[in-house]
Amino acid sequence: MSVMSDSYALITGASSGIGLEIANCLAEKGFNLILTARRENILEIASRDISEKYKVKVDFIASDLSDSSAPDQIFNFCVNKGYQVDILVNNAGYGIKTSFHETSMDEEEKFIRVLGIAVIAMTKIFLPDMIMRGSGKIMVVSSVAAFSPPSSIQALYGPIKTFMNRFSDSINMNYNHKGITSTAVCPGFTVTGFHTASGVQDEMDRVPKFMKFSAKRVALEAVEATLSGKSLCIPTKTYKILVFILKHIPQSVMSILGKGLAPGRYDKK
Fold it and tell me: Whole-prediction pTM value?
């Protein structure tokens, strides 16, 4: 994919973890960037560091995707600045610490908005311009949890990621012929601040080392797959094999295996 001087990649959840590493990967390839996340001070530092390191244009807008007006705010920011978004990376996400029965409906709705509705809204609002130009790349950062049995922690996380995979498939089915591709990226356990923030760091610490990968490793494969127009990216051979197994063995067997491979996810609460 050739990089135009006014061509930008927009990345949500870009202040840390996989989102920040995706930003670095795209900048290294010469793409100008628009970073968005909630923490303005961290975005400012990240934008300056990336711009200085890779000599690309980097701008940022602090925005909370749990707010229904956030997608419009981000879009208007891009329009007002004259930024052409050719790559949209829907990466923002988090986990809920409390059990499903202990979580308020307001918290659940906020969670669903950030991981699901905001992805749809961001895609919907930037898609028309991509259609008009006859090209565009969309990345939806999903999870291997989309293929796993329901978990005893973060009860809605896997179901929402399954929904996001199907949403990405729908974008491809409806818009591939217009030059648009969507890539669902499904990483496994990735070493970031996500698990601490989500209150499941203890479970993450008990996961075998061979199942944990760096955010940079995940980002490299995610970016290559997106630029190549692949519909699905499962970073690392380890998780490609695991997803193959998940698709071909009964859930009851996977739940037993999961107690050893992913402690805490399948323990009875």
Answer: 0.87
Confidence of residue 103 (pLDDT cuts 50, 70, 90): very high
SS3 91: coil
Helix (H) or strand (E) holding 168: helix 157-175
Structural domain boundaries in the chain: 7-261
Which residue type does 137 have? Answer: K
**Which residue type sits at 38?**
R
In the block, which residue shows the tokens 């295996």? 257
**Mean pLDDT of the residues in the chain:** 88
Hunting for tokens 């996989």 — which residue is that? 18
91: CB partners within 8 A, 6+ apart: 11, 12, 13, 14, 18, 19, 22, 139, 141
Question: Distance of CA 21 to CAs 14, 50, 169, 221, Å?
Answer: 8, 10, 24, 11
In this structure, CATH architecture of domain 7-261: 3-Layer(aba) Sandwich (3.40)
CA distances (Å), origin 160, targets 80, 129, 148: 32, 27, 12
Are the beta carbons of 202 and 264 closer than 8 angstroms? yes
How does pLDDT run across 216-229, given as a tens digit for each residue?
Answer: 999 999 999 999 99
